[in-house]
Automatic annotation (TrEMBL):
Residues 127-226 bind DNA. Pfam families: Response_reg, Trans_reg_C. It comes from the Bacteria. This is DNA-binding response regulator. Residues 3-116 form the Response regulatory domain.
Length: 231
């Protein structure tokens, strides 16, 4: 049974949401402040955190940064802030997904299940290790190394890299990435993909201007190639 931590200060949202998620098969703990939520996340080690941004003691984005400094637990941000710039800032702080209020428990449950499927124990563990040049991707352990050195990726960054590696040499559109990696078949912002690609490039020691593995095809998408074939 997945263990969730809901960090939400609004009692009228928190109480029915905890009940609805429990009815859908999750073990749910709840916190009403950022600092209580941080303590619970570190002490109880939940499988996933659902995080409100408008908390009374600390902005949720700052709490997300604090969490990311000490934990790789998947985080879904639940926010009433629907401005694209704010969403990008939330993703930049390390969120794995976001939902915009108001949302139903069924919608949130679908997002939770999608994020958990991408974690250890999901279908990706059946895939063989992929080796592309000096890049080694092991879906079973969800570990990545580059030229023999480990590369620390967030769960979403790993899924993005794995999907591109499964299509090595091919141009993959942003729409496909949103559908297959983010599980967003309709709608979604291309900027989400751009932000994560930027993080991934940085961790692979390259940039869009000087690519090695990740090559942008302007107006179409991105392709992962071996450095020798990148030309």
């Amino acid at each position: 049974m997945p263990r969730l931590l809901l960090i939400e200060d609004d009692l009228t949202i928190r109480t029915p949401l905890v009940r609805a998620l429990r009815e859908r098969g999750h073990a749910v703990a709840a916190a009403s402040t950022a600092m209580t939520g941080l303590r619970d996340a570190l002490d109880d080690r939940p499988d996933l955190v659902v995080l409100d941004l408008g908390l009374p003691d600390l902005d949720g984005r700052e709490l997300l940064r604090m969490l990311r400094a000490v934990s790789a637990v998947p985080v879904i941000v639940a926010t009433a802030r629907d401005d694209e710039r704010e969403i990008v800032r939330v993703l930049d702080a390390g969120a794995d997904d976001y939902v915009v209020k108001p949302f139903t428990a069924a919608q949130l449950d679908a997002r939770i299940r999608a994020v958990l499927r991408r974690g250890p124990g999901g279908p990706a563990e059946e895939d063989p290790t992929m080796v592309i040049g000096g890049l080694r991707i092991d879906p079973r352990s969800r570990q990545v190394s580059l030229d023999g050195e480990p590369v620390e990726l967030t769960p979403r960054e790993f899924d993005l890299l794995r999907h591109l590696a499964s299509r090595v040499g091919e141009v993959v559109t942003k729409r496909e990435l949103l559908t297959e990696v983010w599980q967003i078949p309709y709608g979604g912002a291309d900027k989400t993909v751009d932000v994560h690609l930027s993080w991934l490039r940085r961790k692979l020691g390259e940039s869009a201007q000087s690519p090695r593995y990740l090559h942008t095809v302007r107006g179409v998408g991105v392709r992962l190639v071996t450095p020798e074939a990148g030309g």
